[in-house]
Each structure stands twice: as structure tokens, then as C-alpha cells.
Amino acid sequence: MERRTLLLCGLLALTGCGSAAPTRRPGVGSARAGDRIAGLADVPTGSGALVDLPGDGQLLLVRSADGVRAFNPACPHQGTVVDPPAAGVITCPTHRSAFDPQTGAVLSGPSPKGLAEVPVRVSGEDVLLA
Ligand code: FES
User: Signal peptide: which range, if any (predicted)?
Assistant: First the structure.
């Protein structure tokens, strides 16, 4: 083995490059209908949580007295992953667009449209992709 190849292999081993950890993408990714995406206990009532889906996707789940809704957390302005609701508003940390946690609609800021809703359903204590 050449010295250059040996050094590269050693560097990859030290940095963890080439590991199998999936890269998360906002949205459903490779998850399929019926996949369990969270437990109800993982989604605080009156707030929400970013959840990693089976595969490589990521969704924002929002829980209210009416149930659980899911949104693609990619801000429609420039794609930043938005923060879970706080004080009744979903906020994008980059340019501060604000979204309604019940509908995903834009409340203020530069986003040209609201967050895209993703259908989910609750089954017992689980939240499933619909
Ligand atoms: S990326 Fe979200 S408001 Fe600009």
C-alpha cells in the first residue's frame, strides 16, 4: 500500500468519514406510509418536536388538543430547518419567518409560502406516516 493511501485511510478512520450515519433531509425521505415516526410521548402537547424518520427524512410534529400534525421543516424561503413551536409560533432561525403551528401558514417574514403539511395519523401511542 502506498504511503499516500495509508495516510488517507488513517485520516478517514480518525474523522469517521465513510461511516454509515444517514444524512437527514427535511421531509419524508425514504419513509413509507404506515412507518412509525414517533411516540405520542415524544411530542409535547402545545408544542412539538423535530423527529428523524426511518431512513433519512426529518419532520416537524406539532401536537395540540386536536391531535398531531406534521410539516416538512424546510423553510420555503431558503430551506433552513425551522424550530419547533415556542410561544405559539414556529420560527425559522435564519431570517425569522414565523409560521402558524396549526396550519403551517406564514404569519410574518420573507417566506413566500407556508410549511408543507405531511399527512400523519395516531394509532394508540404511536404517530404513523399516513
Ligand atoms: S431561510 Fe427561513 S426565513 Fe429565510
Answer: 1-20
**How far apart are the CA of 39 and the centre of ligand 1, in A?**
29
CB of 92 closer than 6 angstroms to any ligand 1 atom: yes
**What is the pTM assigned to this prediction?**
0.84
| Candidate of 71, 95, 106, 115 to mutate for ligand 1, largest count of ligand atoms within 8 Å of Cβ | 95
pLDDT, tens digit (0-9, with 9 covering 90-100), for 107-126: 999 999 999 999 999 999 99
First to last CA, the chain: 51
CA distance 9 to 61: 40
